[in-house]
Amino acid sequence: MRPLKLTLEGFYGVRDGMHRDSLTLDLESLPEGLIALTGPNGAGKTTIMDNLHPYPIMPSHSSKLSVDAFSYWDHICAPTALKELEWEHDGIRYRSSFSFRKPGKTGKAEYFLAYRSMDGTWRPVSLPDGTMSDGKADTYNRCVEAINGSLETFFTSVFSAQNRRPLASYGSGEIKTLLAELLGIENLKALSAKAADVAKILGRALDAINVEIASLLLKRERVSDVQRLADKNFEALRSARTDREKAVGVGTSLTQQRATLAVKQSESTAIEARLRQLGVRRDELNGAVKTLDDDDTAAKTRVQQRTSALNRSVVTHQATLTQREAILGAAAQRDEAQLFIGREVARVEPLQNEIAALQAKQVQHAELHGKLQGLEKEGPTKAAHFESLRQQAAVVDAVPCAGHDMHTRCPLLSQAREAKVEAEVQRISVAQLRTTYSETRKLAVELAPALEQLAAKRVELKTLNDAITGARQKLERTTELAAKKPLLDAATSGLEAVQSELKALAEEERVRQLRVDADKARFTTQLGEITEEVTRLGAVDVTAAIGEIDWQLSVNREAIVALDARIEGLIRSETTLQAECERLKTELVPFSATQVRANRLSNEISHWKLLAKGLGNDGVVALTIDDAGPALTHTVNELLLACYGRRFTVEIRTQRALASGEMREGFQILVHDADNDSTKLVEVMSGGQKVWINECLTRGIALYLAQNTGQPYQTLFSDESDGPLDPQRKLQFMRMKREVLQQGGYQREFFISQTPDLVAEADAIIDIQALAA
User: Fold this and answer.
1) CA-to-CA dists, residue 364 to 360, 370, 440, 459, 628, angstroms
2) What is the DSSP string of 578-619?
3) Which contiguous run of DSSP H or E holds residue 84?
4) Which of 137, 622, 670, 748 could form a disulfide with 651 if both were Cys (CB 3.0 to 4.6 A apart)?
5) Using CA atoms, how far apart are residues 194 and 183, in angstroms rounded to an integer?
6) What is the DSSP letter of 714?
């Protein structure tokens, strides 16, 4: 893959770094070799580098190597944006066009891939399986990967982005997938996937057969249940027939006993007639007792209700009478309250007028107090100023030239003479201020007693208002009590009437209760006499015995009918169960053949799963990777030797030893240090050494691709890969770049570096600042 021309519109990196809305970069005319992109931080170098490939991702800004982990919308600053890259691969010129539109809250992105035909026209790329680049991200990705290889392989081998993930951090499954593509054995993984699909299809068929077998197993269990139910029905039928024979025997015995009692009953007809009479009389007496109890209960309820009503009237009258003294004295108290209110209300207005006058003096006193505070602040200030001027003026008389002609003309004393004039003015001002302060203080002192009088008058007014309020409340209470005077006579007469009625009601209830008790005793005596006579006559009466036997015969007949119904039901159930059992046995005939078919299908699934595993990551792929490991290690070590000397050699292990001594699939990169005679994992090396080793691994993979897999990548990319290296290693780093270009047959490597010495060794330079200008 060789980038030829790049156009970017609406990207943050172009706008903020170059202060341009769009950028077009022609790369076709550049010479072969190392091409450096230079410019200060933030100038847009990484934005350009991240777009010099056809994959829809900016790898320096992606959390992982996947189009799903990156969004162009985070790097677009305009409602419409465009990325257009023309690139060449395997002798064919392609054009990748990414169009982004976001007029509102949602945006739309389209991805097109076209190739230039022999007649010079651009045509959409289509694959042999019918996939055509139609603007959708999915079809674009499939077309690009079919032409240029997978995204993971490209960014692991030939494109070293900023913040890229080091190879040493790859897991076993990730490195297997990567090396499988590098070795061109993806077809084995495809066959493994197909074998797994066959196993899944056969598994679904096996699931259907297992469902059928489960159904047949349920039917077989049902046969056992039906046979068990049939046995229980047989035992229940035999028990029911035994119970019926016993019931028939009991019925025969009861019939014989009833016949004997019927003969005996014909001899006692007179006794039966007397018993009937006694029964009628007993019922009458019981009815009379019940009626008497009901009437007694109703009468007690009526008396209780009337007594409660009378007691409530007594309480009401007594409550009125307890207020007699208060009601009789209420009129006098009412008159006194009215007189007091009238007298006190007359005192309110003069007192309010006095308070208003005193409040005016309070306001005047507050104004004077504020003025005094202002004078107290102003006085010290003016006094200090006067003292300062006086001291300056004293110099005039203190100098030696005082009294001479030059004394009045001396320019050095001009400030002192001015101070003397100002001091006289200031002295007069201070004197006036003191006079004003004395007069104001005198007025404030004269007004001070008025403030004390105001507080006393306010207390007096409050006390007067409270007294008037209390008197008005007393007036309301006494007026209300005085209105109750006509109720006293009514309460006295009503109380006497209610008490008389209560006494009469109690006497009437006592007489009624005596009458009820006498009637109950008489009815009880008569019932006792009837009971004694019935007991005496019942000793020779067989009517009750015949009735008991008739009831037992009725129960016996019902039991025989129920047993007959149960026997009939058990016979029908037995017939149904036998028919169901025969039907289930017929349906279970194919069970053995189905089980054999399921076993055969299960064995077939095991074979396909074994094939899928053998062709997958843990089978032939793992073995092939193990075989390719030494070749890849040799390529990396040759590159280390050519560029950095003999100190470091790399060992790639695709298996790891467990504590038990067994070997398991894994991935480790060991570095042998000849200077220190030590071996350690690349993860524990220093920052610069890790960069050094990781870049050799990355470029080793790129060389392996170029030499063994026929992948025609023509360009390498690296973004500030030399950051942690010291100056000597940086020069060796550039030597490695040229060695990789030579060994791999690459035409160019685009790289970004902030080291001027490395930039100076480039075959061509793309100055980002010049592009911005």
Assistant:
1) 6, 10, 11, 21, 110
2) HHHHHHHHHHTTTHHHHHHHHHHHHHHHHHHHHHHHHHSTTT
3) strand 80-89
4) 670
5) 20
6) -
Length of the chain: 773
Residue owning tokens 């022999």: 118
47: phi then psi, degrees, rounded to nearest 5: -60, -45
8 Å CB contact between 164 and 57: no
Cα separation, 534 vs 530, whole angstroms: 6
618 contacts: CB under 8 Å, gap ≥ 6: 665
- Tokens for 17? 């770094």
Residue 610: CB partners within 8 Å, gap ≥ 6?
none
Q: In sequence order, what are the residues at sequence separation of 6 or more whose Cβ sits closer than 8 angstroms to the Cβ of residue 680? A: 670, 671, 673
Residue given tokens 């009479």 in the structure block: 277
Cα separation, 406 vs 446, in Å, equals 57
- Give the tokens for residue 587: 């349906």
Residues 231-259 pLDDT 10s: 787 788 888 888 888 888 888 887 887 77
SS3 658: coil
Q: Residue 548, Cβ neighbours under 10 Å: how many?
A: 14
For residue 89, which of 1, 15, 24 has the smallest C-alpha distance?
Answer: 1
Q: What is the DSSP secondary-structure string of 5-34?
A: EEEEESBHHHHHHH--SEEEEE-TTSPSEE
Query: Distance between CA 319 and CA 324 in Å, rounded?
Result: 9
Close Cβ partners of 440 (under 8 Å, ≥ 6 residues apart)? 368, 371, 372, 375
3-state secondary structure at position 541: coil
Give the integer Cα–Cα distance in Å for 672 and 646.
10
Give Cβ neighbours of residue 751 (< 8 Å, ≥ 6 apart). 34, 35, 36, 37, 717, 718, 719, 721, 737, 758, 762
The verdict on pTM exceeding 0.70 is no
Say which residue the tokens 């006098």 belong to.
332
Residue with tokens 């590098």: 182
Side chain identity at residue 435, one-letter code: T
What residues in the chain have per-residue pLDDT under 50? 539
Q: How far, in Å, CA of 699 to CA of 744, rounded?
A: 9
Cβ neighbours of 151 (radius 10 Å): 21
